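How a chain folds remains the central question behind the approach discussed here. This step matters because it turns folding into a mapping between discrete strings. The sequence in question and its structure tokens are set out directly beneath this paragraph.
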Amino acid sequence: MHVDTRKGVHPWQFGLALLAVMTPVVPALAWVDDGFVALPLFLGTAAVTAVSLLFHGRPAGFALAAWAVSLPLLAWSFLGALAGMFVFFPSVLQLWLASAADPRERPRAAGVMTGAGLVLSVLQVGRLMGA
């Protein structure tokens, strides 16, 4: 049986999009103990951020969904800053990186993009968790 690996989104891209969803959620769950009342709004924003993950079988749809979600999310991360939505700004960058981080197309650039997305997550979670 022959499997064509080019048909779906590469795991690095999927992983970056998953990081875009999970990176802001980790601190939000920790903030619940501190009286964080915007959790439903926060989880709704994370759910919208996850839309691109539904297109894992279609790379063109994945990239389009990543950009279609990230542009309003960019505005929302600034407009909703008082409610804690500023933590979604790195998710915007990670979605942009995920849309282009296919090592089958650009091997070296995809590695750099994936590494940059991982560093964004580590820095964001570390800063927000007080590490």
Q: What stands out?
A: The chain is about 65% helix and 0% strand. The radius of gyration is 15 Å.
